């Protein structure tokens, strides 16, 4: 495994965990792998360690090339800066795909809570002209994720909003509030999504996932949504390592693996 940190313009960092070349039993090298860029939660105030390395290593073991984005937060969360960080990350991964053994047409974004808001923001706003200008990219579709994995996501700026997250990310953005209410921004070019939430989430109401799933379905975008009866907010990978052990809710991980294999084909891992 190769591991390194890449610093993006503006100071955000991208932690990479990459498989090195591996030969199969027939002596053939495993081909380019799918990749996932992971956005931890933290209400746009910080990035949560429990939603960084623990899921990163699970998805690395599945066979993906994994990147953890520590995007700009707090006073730097406004002005479209976190979304710029994610857009630059997906562009970088595609530009360096040969060097990093990545299939540029199989790049997913994954987020938890406010990190899921960030992932989905790029999913619905990948063609924003300001993002393209900042990233200096003419072919704007290169900023579009191929899939979204959204765990207990912050989605809406409406009735069921996680208000502090929306206030931080929307600050000085020059965008109307509806821009950040992602269920209102979905169209048929939004990437397919895997969502999960617990019904009694007291931090981010499950209605956030309801609203997004309904919007995706209406737009004809493939969506798989799993709702578990009980579990606190911020369960991450639902193991003792992150202090939220749950065999039931933890089923989201193999369910997501199955979904990714349906989208991307064999992942090449466990």
Automatic annotation (TrEMBL):
Domain BD-FAE-like: residue ranges: 32-216
UniProt key word Hydrolase: yes
GO MF: hydrolase activity
Alphabetically ordered keywords of this record: Hydrolase
SUPFAM superfamilies named in the record: alpha/beta-Hydrolases (SSF53474)
Keyword hit for Hydrolase: yes
The protein's name: Alpha/beta hydrolase
PANTHER family noted in UniProt: AB HYDROLASE SUPERFAMILY PROTEIN C4A8.06C (PTHR48081), PEPTIDASE S9 PROLYL OLIGOPEPTIDASE CATALYTIC DOMAIN-CONTAINING PROTEIN (PTHR48081:SF6)
């Amino acid at each position: 495994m190769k591991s390194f940190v890449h610093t993006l313009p503006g100071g955000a960092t991208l932690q990479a965990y990459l498989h090195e070349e591996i030969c199969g039993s027939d002596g053939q090298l495993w081909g380019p792998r799918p990749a996932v860029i992971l956005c931890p939660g933290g209400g746009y105030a910080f990035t949560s360690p429990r939603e960084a390395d623990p899921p990163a290593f699970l998805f690395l073991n599945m066979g993906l090339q994994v990147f953890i984005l520590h995007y700009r937060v707090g006073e730097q969360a406004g002005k479209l800066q976190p979304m710029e960080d994610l857009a630059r990350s997906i562009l970088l991964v595609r530009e360096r795909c040969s060097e990093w053994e990545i299939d540029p047409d199989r790049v997913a974004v994954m987020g938890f809570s406010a990190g899921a808001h960030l992932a989905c923001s790029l999913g619905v706003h990948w063609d924003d002209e300001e993002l393209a200008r900042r990233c200096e990219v003419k072919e704007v579709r290169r900023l579009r994720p191929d899939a979204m994995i959204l765990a207990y996501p912050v989605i809406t700026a409406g009735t069921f909003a996680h208000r502090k997250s929306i206030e931080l990310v929307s600050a000085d953005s020059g965008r109307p509030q509806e821009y950040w209410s992602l269920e209102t921004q979905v169209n048929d070019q939004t990437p397919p999504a895997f969502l999960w939430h617990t019904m009694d989430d007291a931090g981010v109401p499950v209605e956030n996932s309801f609203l997004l799933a309904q919007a995706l379905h209406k737009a004809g975008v493939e969506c798989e949504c799993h709702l578990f009866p009980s579990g606190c907010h911020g369960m991450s990978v639902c193991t003792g390592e992150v202090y939220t052990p749950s065999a039931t809710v933890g089923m989201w991980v193999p369910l997501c693996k199955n979904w990714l294999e349906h989208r991307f084909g064999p992942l090449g891992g466990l």
